[in-house]
Each structure stands twice: as C-alpha cells, then as structure tokens.
Amino acid sequence: MFIVVGSNVFGQSVSVETYAFPKKEEKASMISEMLKFPVIKTGNPQIEELINRDLLNRVTAEESPGLSIEQTLFEWSEGIDYMSFNVTYLKNNLISFNIFIEGCGAYCSSRIDYFTYDTDTGRFITIDQIIDISTKFKAQVVAERNKQYEMQKKQLVKRFKSKEPYLQEDSFRMAINCFKNCTASFDLESFSLREDSLEIIDDCSFPHAIRSLQPDIQLHFKYENIKEVLKVKL
C-alpha cells in the first residue's frame, strides 16, 4: 500500500509529498515503520513526471523502468530497512534534497544520495551547472579537504600513540592507508544546496570494520564568498 503521509509546501506551486510504503519482507503496521520516499509536485504534470521518474531511476538504478513508482519501489526495497529524506533548499526554481537508505544483513550499511533539480524544466542539475569548477574554486575545495584529512589523521596518530583502548594496530594501519587513498583522488560531483551555502560531499568511505575511524569532512562554502564563480542565482 502506498500512502501519502505528509506534504511540505515551500512556496510558489512546488511541494514535496512524503510517500510511505511497507518493507517488502514484512507488512508494517505503523507509519513510523514504513520506508519514506519523496515525490515532487510542481503543478505541471509533465515536469513532475520528468523529475520523479528520473529520481526513481537514479535511486533504484533503473530497477524496473516500465513499472509505476509504487511497484518499482516495492520491488526494489528488498533488504532495505530504513529510508527517509531531507529537503535542504527550495528557491530560485531549484530543489535540493538527500535520501538516506540503510539495509542490514550480517551488519548494517547505509548511504546518502544527493539530488538537485530544476523545478522549471525538470532537469537533473550537476555541479558544473551550479558553479564554474574549472576556476580556482576546485583547487580551494581540494585544499580544504586535504587540510581536514591531514588534521584528522594527526588526531588519529595521536590517539594510537597514547595507546587508546580498543584502537588496535591493524585497524590503525588500515585507517592510515584509507586516509592515503582518499586524499590521492577526489571527484567533484556530489553536492547539496543549503540555505546560505554550497556543500561539497566527500564520498570517500572506509570499510565497515574501521568505519568508526572515518573522518568527518565538512566542506561548506558561503554563497556570498563564491558569488563570482556561481552560474545560477542562489
């Protein structure tokens, strides 16, 4: 059963409806137990179809392109234990949001996917359509990212040298290698629009065994500080 459990109106004619549906393996009896997926409403059926179909295909890796949204999500949701979303920006004909998905088997794993759409045309928006990444901005992002990695690596080394309980040498060595691999390459792709800033997402993740040692990289850039290289009004 596909249920509308809420609708958030953000201005103009754009709103986001929250659809809840039960996990495939069981029949959820409460709304809180159901998986939640966003459906964008713009007042224009053609634009809504463009956005919602593209979103569905991206989230499910085109699981069942010929089926309805309801059927596709239900078939795809096997092994998914939790799903929710958060809208971070809706202004200037742009909507930006993220979807959190978690599945549990031998251990739980999760991911956060980031999406931005033009609510006027229905187009999926990429980072190079928001900002000129060929300028010094990319170098600024990489420099800030490397600075945070280096700082948090030093903190990890300090913890290891102080013989912190539960930080074993094999985990430490594995984490240091992950730090090295993460800083060696970086694709400027995932991003999120916020009320007053552009957030660049660091997609490098550590293996589950040392996930607790993964650094928390925060890359936020105020619109007012990058306005010279922005391609759109934010």
Give a structural overview:
This protein is an alpha+beta fold. Helices cover 32% and strands 29% of the residues. It contains six helices and nine strands, in the order βββααβββαααβββα. The chain has helices at residues 45-60, 69-76, 127-130, 136-161, 169-184, 223-226; strands at residues 3-11, 14-21, 35-41, 82-91, 94-104, 108-118, 191-193, 197-200, 219-222. The strands form three sheets. It has a three-stranded antiparallel β-sheet with strand order 1-2-3. A three-stranded antiparallel β-sheet has the order 4-5-6, covered by helices on one side. The chain has a three-stranded antiparallel β-sheet with strand order 7-8-9. α1 runs parallel beside α2 (69-76) and α4 packs antiparallel against α5 (169-184). The longest helix has 26 residues, at 136-161. The protein is flat and about 60 Å long. The mean pLDDT is 89.
